[in-house]
């Protein structure tokens, strides 16, 4: 933003009255939003259908929860604070405000023009108030938590009418391994455009902030492999090393089959881990993280449904530390050492099951009833839906996210590239080696392959 005052500003009200008119229709229940950017249209849909945010809300609520802090998070907050403070004077001269928020949307600190800060305070755009989409709808901070890359939100693109005079742009710093958000950097102006360099400055700030995260991920990956190697020399049990998010760094031959990941092969880039896609394993790893923070000698055990098994498998989970910091866990299969893990608790915010799926046809948002969707298929960076209206691109940014949203409403992951609607399976075909394929009840009766590691879950779901 060094030369921001010499650059042409972006429009403060994207689409002029077109966006405002679309917003007025959408809050009244209409679905078509011509002239509205897809990112904004999808956010509006979340606000109305999932989060049920009142579009006439006038201020943000007090933040009621703080996420667990890790050393990586502290590094991010310190770096973002430094970068925000370094441009605070320049942003202030433009009548703007810079904020840093955590992964819940809770504002931690702000800098900028005093008059704008005072006006922001009227809406609770201030420390210790929550600006997630769940709390206040579409806005720079909250929508950045839901998307990737810089997110500009201008004028009537905000979900709440009280914020239509604001123009802002936010970007989330994400964990380089899990891709979960850690913090958000945001710039706001009142009734005036942001400088044209705002989005590039935000992206550069995040890139610089993630450098130490990548170094830490590489170091912790290498140390988990070393801990795995030492443990393998002392025990014959099937073994895997997972990070604190439950992603696999390395697994032996037996563990790899149970987890559905490559055997004895750590990722070439230690920041890229294998995703076993087992919710119980992820829950166990996260519980182990919380327990190990209180007791470094803690060891626990539980049972999970692994791949290729019809019965739960016992696992023992042992934390791994480096320089006093937890970096992951060693998971032994067939073992039951340590304290029993309690039943998994529900999320702090109960997940709202989608009533409809959002798809895109060109620049138009299409709302689909769940029975209209036969299956979803990942292709490159996109997810495509086979529907009664034809083939449509899903608004969801990835198959993993879509799988999580649909897991409890009759959809099942059957392959790394496919999620199917169980009620739309017409026939099941067995191959010469016992492999399964699903003939779907759609326009073309398309066949969907079932991977070997997902076959037991398919048999359980279909009572085969």
From TrEMBL:
This protein's UniProt keywords: DNA-binding
Matching Gene3D superfamilies: 3.30.450.40, LytTr DNA-binding domain
Pfam families found in the cross-reference section: LytTR
Name of the protein described by the UniProt record: LytTR family transcriptional regulator DNA-binding domain-containing protein
Record-level Gene Ontology MF annotations: DNA binding
InterPro entries: GAF-like_dom_sf (IPR029016), LytR-like (IPR046947), LytTR_DNA-bd_dom (IPR007492)
Keyword DNA-binding: yes
Taxonomy of the source species: Bacteria, Bacillati, Actinomycetota, Actinomycetes, Kitasatosporales
Keyword DNA-binding appears in the UniProt entry: yes
Record domain HTH LytTR-type: where: 399-464
